[in-house]
Amino acid sequence: MIVQLRDGLSTAEESSVLSQLSDMGCKVTPVVTQLKKYLVVDPKKEIDIRSVGQLKGVRDVHRVNAPYKLVSRKWRVAPSAVSLGDGVQFAEGELTIAAGPCSIEDERQIDSVIAHLKEIGVRIMRGGVYKPRTSPYSFRGVGLEGLKMWHEKAREAGIKVVTEVLATDQIESMHDYVDMFQVGARNAQNFTLLAELGKVDKPVLLKRGMSTTLDEFLHAAEYIFSSGNEKLVLCERGIRTFERAYRNTLDINAVPALKERTHLPVVVDPSHGIGVRRWVRSVALAAVIAGCDGLILEVAPIPEKAFSDGQQTLNFKESRELIEKAQQLIAIRREDY
Ligand code: PEP
Ligand code: MN
Prior knowledge:
Layout: E1 2-5, H1 11-23, E2 26-32, E3 37-43, H2 49-53, E4 58-62, E5 82-85, E6 88-90, E7 96-100, H3 107-120, E8 124-126, H4 143-157, E9 160-164, H5 168-174, E10 180-183, H6 191-197, E11 204-207, H7 214-226, E12 232-236, H8 254-261, E13 266-268, H9 270-274, H10 277-290, E14 294-298, H11 316-336
Parallel strand pairs: 7-8, 7-14, 8-9, 9-10, 10-11, 11-12, 12-13, 13-14
Antiparallel strand pairs: 1-3, 1-4, 2-3, 5-6
Phosphoenolpyruvate (PEP) binds next to loops.
């Protein structure tokens, strides 16, 4: 159950609601986000929801049967939009694109990708400065100094920056140089990191872990939301199955299934989802038709020379063609739904 209190309650009035709920046998977790204050209420026994609604100070009550509560669409039926500022947002019915290299490498690469994004009208640049690599001997990113340079150039160009944070102790130093924090698949159930990102007033792009079910994925999102951050976007990026013909299995099914379960925007990363450059386009377009609210694409000037994930990275021509096609499909999708 989610309880919303009336605005302007005194501390005493609020404590009184809490103690009455606890007398009714409920476990109450107060949640304060950037936008509002909620009580997540878990009745330990059957109670009449109307009796909660009648408590003095309660504005409304919603029964939410799903185990995750605040991210559930049973509670918030209308889709949530997530703004990165300056008119850049993820929202249902739109197709917001973030594109850029797997790893940020140097100034030339940054300039060249920014020029490409400007040309095709993409307003969010992705790129890793802290890279989670399977081998410790692989390139692990340019770090904070690289992020500062990239952010400055992107800001001048009117482009937003999304980049992965690997650990809680990086959040503070990265904070002023990102427009959106990314949580990678390998950290999808790092509950300490998720809870810390809940305390930050910056949008978070949460990727699905390679072996997390949708239920677990939504619980991970609930960690961030219930820790105080409502600005959340979910990203399907492929799961690990028995199939070895491609890097991961992009779970297109997750798109309609997530859209039904949550009010949060749902985007798809076909680059990691399939891991093979020449197939990225097909699955990206399939994801658009399936109803995703955005795409995250790996794009670089010369993918063959990329420091990481070149095998799944599109060149500028492929990126332009894919994005144009995706935009045509959005028009078709709008007619169809
Ligand atoms: C990435 O986006 O570069 C990345 C490492 O993705 P994932 O966490 O989905 O593997
Ligand atoms: Mn990558």
